[in-house]
Amino acid sequence: MTRTLWTVANAIMCLAFLLSVIVQFNDPDPLTWVSIYGAAMLVCGFEVRRRVHPLIPAAIALVALIWAATIAPRVIGQVPFGAMFAEFEMKDVGVEESREMYGLVLIALWMIAVASAAWRRRSVVQPAEMGRPVAR
User: Residue 30 sits in which domain range?
Assistant: First the structure.
């Protein structure tokens, strides 16, 4: 059951990151945002099939956290959290940066979860390694 929920969660996040990629084409600097959301989307897609090396999502998480940290001083204590949801349009630079920062934090958190799952899978001794066939 847990495996199925993890697969569904990654499929949902893959779609969410895909939607994030699509909306970035309106941004003044779309390539950077498409790159980070696209990378997260690809990782989620590969994680659905359990084909992710843990270092890849860990590296994406690190990039996202460092990037979010560069935006944080202009957001934390400057832009109320609720302001991100008050309007759909980007009428305020602070709201835009707030959404960007929290998007990066979301990417980082999910990539950390994927990296952790991948590391756990790699650290478990498989029965085939002990001379027995693996039943999956």
Answer: 2-123
